[in-house]
Design brief:
By secondary structure, this protein is α/β, with parallel strands linked by helices. It contains four helices and eight strands, in the order ββαββαβββααβ.
């Protein structure tokens, strides 16, 4: 979830989101790292959007915060659309990271999904802005997989965990580290449909406001 700001003075459409992390595996350094990682992935296409007769650069501006004292009440009662809340733990049921739906502002991240410039956080952030997984997950012959393709997607060999593996078998599915935010992902956000208020702001996504307890093995 976030807030879009239309700045006609510098011809920019800025997407602002504050990412608040809590949990036993969260810390200040990791919070800032994840925010920078998401911004880097989503800004990589250097996308633009036409507003009126002028092109505006789309900028994703992410801020990461660690709040070890965050309470469930703060999450439930938050009304700021910039704020997203994610628990980080070493263990996650199902061994996956997730957010609480398409158009959301809360979720649960598994620590090792977030390390080494992973695309997991950027993928989950796409869900918070309203993007779902593509219906067709066999994209052989179509090159680099976009950021919203899920684990298990069938891809060209160079994007598999093991380029020599048989497609669809062990090692023969998409390595999530090969995903990228493509211009098509930005287009799917349908930013041209946003309704801005008199101050040039619009909300993207929605409130789920779910507090997560740590999962137990």
């Amino acid at each position: 979830m976030g807030v879009a700001e239309l700045d006609k003075n510098v011809l920019a459409l800025n997407i602002h989101a504050d990412l608040v992390f809590y949990g036993n595996a969260a810390n200040e350094e990791l919070a800032k790292q994840i925010a920078a990682n998401i911004a880097s992935h989503w800004n990589e296409p250097e996308a633009v959007i036409k507003v009126g007769h002028e092109l505006h650069r789309i900028n994703f501006i992410m801020n990461g915060f660690y709040d070890p004292f965050l309470t469930d009440i703060e999450v439930y009662e938050n009304t700021d659309p910039r704020k997203n809340y994610f628990r980080i733990e070493e263990f996650a049921s199902g061994n996956i990271s997730f957010v609480d739906g398409i158009n959301s502002n809360t979720g649960y991240f598994k620590l090792d999904n977030l390390l080494n410039n992973s695309t997991t956080a950027a993928h989950e952030f796409g869900h918070t802005l309203g993007l779902d997984h593509p219906e067709n997950i066999d994209i052989r012959g179509k090159g680099i997989p976009g950021i919203m393709y899920p684990r298990g997607t069938i891809v060209d060999p160079e994007f598999q965990y093991d380029p020599a593996a048989v497609p669809g078998e062990k090692g023969g599915t998409m390595n999530p580290f090969t995903r990228k935010v493509l211009l098509s992902d930005i287009k799917n956000l349908q930013l041209h449909r946003l309704e801005f208020d008199e101050n040039g702001f619009a909300v993207i996504g929605g409130f789920t406001s779910v507090w997560h307890e740590a999962h137990q093995p």
